[in-house]
């Protein structure tokens, strides 16, 4: 790749790193603030967490439509990222979980505009033969930052929420500036919508089936999303907050590191096989995490994260070949976020069901995902190639 293109892609990868540090530092801080200081119920924590993904679901699709109006509008995503710096400053001013949820809605809307645009740009700017691997590296750097962000939270826990949010704000501003520089370098390669031609680039798998699988998978792995994960692990295993954050960070880091190999196989072998594999692992993950022992809980979280992080670059590679690629990638982000919202709310409502005691103790909220796991396996088996 020529130097301008390479530098632009590297800057976008860097933005995944800095932006995720900002987000991941804030997530456990807000989770424990809402649960411990504001005394919110687990359902309320779920609403706080899922309000973010609900807003992100709608703005992801909106971002795809906006980008189709003109590629110069890609800079809106960078501005939205910097807007997060102002939003997180509101959290220390809250006194109820409802106020926290309202700010989470704002954060989600801004993130829905910014991240899908970045994913679209890196997908279309990268040569098709290495697209899944480069996109996987983009997500992998986000996972490294997720691990470091959890460590930053653990080491700054005594500073208090207000000072932690200042650190988060600084990283959000930096991320927005990096995105601006990247989009300027890659501007000539940004093509949100192409003419549909018989000899044009076409998806290797049916995009509609990919969206269905993305939706079901996101419902299942919702228990690893946001504040509810930290609270569940801490309470289920009786683990202190700092240790919870660092171990969840390590699970995400290892999952992302291994997901690169799944992306490599998708590039050189079979995208369909990778979709089948990730669907199987995602389907098993809540069943394992439901068993209340440290090995099974963290194995379930690891499998969910590995499956989801392996599926993301493969799905973006497939959808980048669609003639309306910006809308397709914004759409899959929207579908996944809406499904994560539904999955998180299911977990929050079912959390009050308690546990099933026997030789092992099972969390019934996680067992409630079993029908969705079965549906995911059925849809992945039916997956076929065939363009649009």
Features:
76% helix; single chain; globular; 2% strand; 2 domains; Growth Hormone, Chain: A; 388 residues; mainly alpha; two-stranded antiparallel sheet
**How many structural domains are formed by the residues?**
2
Structural class: mainly alpha
Residue runs with pLDDT of under 50 for 5 or more positions: none
Count of alpha and pi helical runs: 14
Mean pLDDT: 84
Percent helix among the residues? Answer: over 70%
- By CATH, the topology of the largest domain is Growth Hormone, Chain: A
CATH homology superfamily name of the largest domain: MFS general substrate transporter like domains
**N-to-C SSE string, H for helix and E for strand:** HHHHHHHHHHHHEEHH
Using only C-alpha atoms, the radius of gyration works out to: 20 Å
Instruction: Name the beta content range.
Output: under 5%
CATH architecture of the largest domain: Up-down Bundle
The top level CATH class name of the largest domain = Mainly Alpha
Can you list the strand order of the major beta sheet?
Answer: 1-2
| N- to C-terminal distance | 29 Å
The total beta strand count reads 2
Report the principal-axis shape: globular
Biggest beta-sheet profile: 2 strands, antiparallel
Keywords: Cell membrane, Membrane, Transmembrane, Transmembrane helix, Transport
GO molecular function: transmembrane transporter activity
Protein name: MFS transporter
Pfam family, one: MFS_1
């Amino acid at each position: 790749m020529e130097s301008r293109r390479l530098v632009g892609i590297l800057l976008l990868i860097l933005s995944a790193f800095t932006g995720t540090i900002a987000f991941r530092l804030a997530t456990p801080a807000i989770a424990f603030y809402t649960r411990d200081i504001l005394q919110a119920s687990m359902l309320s924590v779920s609403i706080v967490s899922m309000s973010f993904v609900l807003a992100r679901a709608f703005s992801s699709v909106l971002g795809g439509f906006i980008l189709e109006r003109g590629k110069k509008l890609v800079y809106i995503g960078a501005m939205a990222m910097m807007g997060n710096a102002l939003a997180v400053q509101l959290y220390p001013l809250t006194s109820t979980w409802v106020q926290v949820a309202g700010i989470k809605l704002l954060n989600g809307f801004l993130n829905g505009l910014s991240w899908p645009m970045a994913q679209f740009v890196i997908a279309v700017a990268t040569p098709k033969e290495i697209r899944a691997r480069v996109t996987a590296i983009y997500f992998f750097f986000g996972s490294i930052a997720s691990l470091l962000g959890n460590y930053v939270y653990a080491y700054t826990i005594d500073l208090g929420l207000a000072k932690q949010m200042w650190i988060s704000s600084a990283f959000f501003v930096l991320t927005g500036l990096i995105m601006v520089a990247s989009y300027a370098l890659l501007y000539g390669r940004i093509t949100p919508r192409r003419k549909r031609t018989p000899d044009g680039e076409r998806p290797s798998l049916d995009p509609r089936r990919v969206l269905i699988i993305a939706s079901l998978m996101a419902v299942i792995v919702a228990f690893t999303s946001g504040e509810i994960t930290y609270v569940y692990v801490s309470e289920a295993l009786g683990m202190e907050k700092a240790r919870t954050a660092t171990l969840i960070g390590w699970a995400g880091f290892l999952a992302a590191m291994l997901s690169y190999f799944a992306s490599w196989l998708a590039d050189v072998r079979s995208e369909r096989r990778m979709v089948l594999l990730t669907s199987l692992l995602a389907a098993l993950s809540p069943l394992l995490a439901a068993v209340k022992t440290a090995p099974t809980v963290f194995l379930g979280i690891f499998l969910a994260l590995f499956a989801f992080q392996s599926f993301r670059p493969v799905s973006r590679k497939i959808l980048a070949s669609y003639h309306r690629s910006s809308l397709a990638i914004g759409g899959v982000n929207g579908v996944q976020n809406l499904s994560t919202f539904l999955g998180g709310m299911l977990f929050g409502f079912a959390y009050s069901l308690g546990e099933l005691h026997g030789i092992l103790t099972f969390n019934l909220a996680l067992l409630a995902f079993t029908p969705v796991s079965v549906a995911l396996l059925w849809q992945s088996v039916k997956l076929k190639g065939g363009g649009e």
